[in-house]
Amino acid sequence: MKETPDDKALEDRLGASKFSGEGFLGxxxxxVDEIVAADLHELAQLGVAQETLLAALRDAxxxxxxxxxxxxxxxxxxxxxxxxxxxxxxSPFRGDGVxxxxxxxxxxxxGEQIVLTALGLAMIExxxxxxxxxxxxxxxxARAARLLDLV
Length: 151
Description:
alpha+beta, 4-stranded antiparallel β-sheet, two-stranded antiparallel ribbon, 39% helix, 17% strand
């Protein structure tokens, strides 16, 4: 499929910038629609709805934020802690607004981690975009579903 000027502009905004540091694509060279399709296919293979995963991620995010920097148990073997950061970051998707910086780190008993941000959750919700492979804030759908006990 031929890349449109809008596709190219989005991919430029998803790349490294003064707002996003290393960007949202990481080392992934696939087009955005291909990344989205692969992640949705992976969730479908697991039998986990995107909305179910998003709700579990959001719940963990909000519980950690409510703990004000303290560690909180999301489920046995999975803890979360929120880290605040000054400022806001604009969404690379036009019209989605700006989001608070800061993150929530989910850590499993074996040390496996997932890093969540308000912007990352919004991109999953609105665009089914879990970010590219190699991105610091990528939420690997299968890994997240496993850590949150959805499979």
